[in-house]
Structures are given as C-alpha cells and as structure tokens.
Amino acid sequence: MSIARVTVLITALSVTGAAPAPPPFVVTYLRALGFVSSDRPGGVAGGSSLVTPSVLRLAQEELGLSPTGVLDAVTLDMFSQQRCGVSPTWLAAPSPPGRTRRFALMGSRWRPAVLTYKVSVYSLTVPKATVDRTLSTVLDHFSSSTKLKFAAAVPGDTEWNLDIRFTGDDHGCSSVFDATVLAHAFPPEFGGDLHVRDAVDFNTTSLTYVLGHELAHSLGVHHSNRADALMYPVYRDVDPLSPLLSGDDLRALQLLYGQA
Ligand SMILES: *[C@@H]1O[C@H](CO)[C@@H](O)[C@H](O)[C@H]1NC(C)=O
Q1: 217 labeled part of a ligand binding site
Q2: Is 226 helix (H, G, I), strand (E, B) or coil?
C-alpha cells in the first residue's frame, strides 16, 4: 500500500473516529524490534490489535519523532527505511542523568586494553580487500577519539574479542534479518559479535556507516534518537569525508572508554 493511500485511509477514518488496521509491515516491524510481543499468537493479522497508540509512541520516540501515537505518513515512511536490527527494548541501560543526552548505553563494556577482531566470514559480493580497508578506516575513527586500541587476530588465534561476519538472513540468531535490516550486533557481555546482512547491496559509504554503527553496539553503545548521530537506528547517507562519529556518539564512547 502506498503512503499516499494510507494517508487517505487515515484521513477518511479519522472522520468516523475508527482506527484503521495498520499495514502488515508495521506489525512485522514492531514485532521484530520487540515493541509488541512476538510470543502472542495470531501472526501479523492478530498482531494488528497490539499496535496501540502507546506502542506507536515508543517506536516514534526511538526515532526522535513526535510521539503522537498516530500512524501518520512520516511515521510510516520511517518504519519502511533501512535500519539496524538491534531492538531498542533489549538491555537498555538508563541514560546517565543530568544534562540532556540522547545516547544510551547497553550496560556492559570491554576491559582489555587492546581488543582483537576478525572477519570470520567475508561477504560473497563485497571484495575482501574493500571490507578490510573499510573496517580499518572505521576502527581508526574509534581509536583516534577514545583510549580503545584494536588489533587484528593473527593466523593461529583461536579466540578474539570482536567477531565480524557477513550472514544470510536466517543465520542462527533468533532474529532473522528482514528486508529493511542492514545488520545487528551484540553488546560486550554477550560477546560483541557483529552480523552484517550480506543480501544488502553495500558500497563503501554505506558499509563504513553500518560497520561503524554496529561496532559501537559491540562496544556497548545503544541507539540515539538524534538524527545526526551514527547511533541513530535508521540508515542515512553521509558525506564520506565528514566525521563518522558525532558529538553524541563521542560522549557515549568516551564515557565508556575515556578520551584519547
Ligand atoms: C551507497 O548505498 C546507499 C545505501 O543503499 C545509497 O543510498 C547511496 O546512494 C550509495 N552511494 C553511492 C556513492 O553509490
């Protein structure tokens, strides 16, 4: 259903006061991100009754939208964008109190002075050299602004801290990648693995952004509702020459790992 059609439908129904059934992709989106329980029976059709104004307000807040609880055209458009698959309801530690902060932390951090990493499964489409070069650029952004240091695992190593793999949609995680998901990652206390959806047609710009975003999750940073932050949940095209980490991202990372 097109957005224009949905708008017409909402307008028509608001006159009679009845709420329209949400499009199925909205139910899938809210379920996948944990805003509505995926344990409830009824599939997508049964799930539409769970899409209440309070659920919509939470989903709008995650994206920094005005929390109206109404499925308006802007909200529908944002729900259909490519984004990170990490659930906002998962492990969210409260943001530190005090001044207005938009970032959140996941509740754990790494202790080793040097974190080792390895791409254990490469992409079937992006060349290995591109992946290696992009990853190294991303790691430089993090190590130049915090006390973090990274080292590639060497042949023979059987363990490393950050495991990066390009995966199929159904890849052994409880959350299967759907068409709008680019990647997801686990916080330090769950091992810090990064899973990048290999079905995505990445270029260097989008891969830099996605690896950077997921790496921050692997380091313990949760989503930010600031649209200019790398940790904003929805993908946006950025100028490859602009700094990868915004002030908001840096505050979160430096709180965990100190300033360089
Ligand atoms: C890179 O991919 C993104 C996301 O698909 C796209 O929006 C952007 O236009 C692409 N950039 C280039 C330079 O091809």
Answers
A1: yes
A2: coil
Residue pair 202/126 in contact by the 8 Å Cβ criterion: yes
171 marked as part of a ligand binding site: yes
Q: Is the minimum distance from the CB of 206 to ligand 1 under 6 angstroms?
A: yes
| Residue 108 near residue 192, CB atoms below 8 Å | no
Residue nearest to atom 12 of ligand 1 (CA): 203
Instruction: Indicate yes or no: pTM above 0.90.
Output: no
Identify the DSSP state of 230: T
Residue 214 known to be catalytic = yes
- Report whether 173 belongs to an annotated binding site: no
How much distance in Å is there from the Cα of 237 to the middle of ligand 1?
Answer: 7
Question: How would residue 174 be classed by pLDDT, with cut points 50, 70 and 90?
Answer: confident
Q: Give the residue whose CA is nearest to atom 3 of ligand 1.
A: 206
* 3-state class percentages of the chain: helix first, strand second, coil last, to nearest 5: 35, 15, 50
Please give the full DSSP string across 173-223, using - where no structure is assigned: SSS---TTEEEEE--GGGT--EEEETTS---HHHHHHHHHHHHHHHTTB--
Between helix 247-257 and helix 204-218 the angle, nearest 10°, is 40
The two tokens of residue 144 are 């130049």
The per-residue pLDDT for range 144-159, each reduced to its tens digit, is 999 999 999 999 999 9
Share of the chain above pLDDT 70, in %: 84
